Amino acid sequence: MMKTLRLLGLFCLFAVMILGTAGCSDDDEELGSSIVGAWQSEIHTYRIWVFMSNGEVVSEDEYGTYHLNGNRLYITWTDEYGDYEEAFLIVELTSDTMVLDELDDDGIAHDDPETYRRIDMGND
Predict the structure, then answer these.
(1) What is the pLDDT of residues 95-122, one digit of tens each?
(2) For residue 31, what pLDDT is reported?
(3) Where does the record locate the signal sequence feature (predicted)?
(4) Which of 77, 92, 98, 107 could form a disulfide with 116 if both were Cys (CB 3.0 to 4.6 A apart)?
């Protein structure tokens, strides 16, 4: 009887781990499709980022790649001086609002989030 209960417990633990892992990847895919499009900063209105579905991102004078890991956004920019990376905590992401808080080298948010609004680039 104890052996059966132990096996049942291990099976339940394994099932929870599988379901938990599957849930995380779906969340990343959902965020990835939500972020695709053009976003303009409310503070620095000249700053427009365009995230493409193939993992590329462009701005006025830079281009690069991005990837999501949970609620974190990582962008590797390439400009005239070379490559550099930025990391952000995604505080909010809806169909028309994206709030990002830049992360320092230790992965800690600055507590100074910046709001972006989705814009129409007129490419319909």
Answers:
(1) 999 999 999 999 999 899 999 999 998 7
(2) 56
(3) 1-22
(4) 98
CA dihedral 4, 6, 9, 13 (to 10 degrees): -130
* Domain ranges for the chain: 2-119
**CATH for the stretch 2-119:** 2.40.128
* CA atoms of 21 and 56, how far apart (whole Å): 26
Contacts of residue 24, Cβ cutoff 8 Å, sequence gap at least 6: 70
What the block records as the tokens of 26 is 């779906």
What does pTM read for this prediction?
Answer: 0.71
Q: Which tokens hold the place of 86?
A: 């930025």
Instruction: Give the residue, 66 or 62, on which the prediction is more confident.
Output: 66
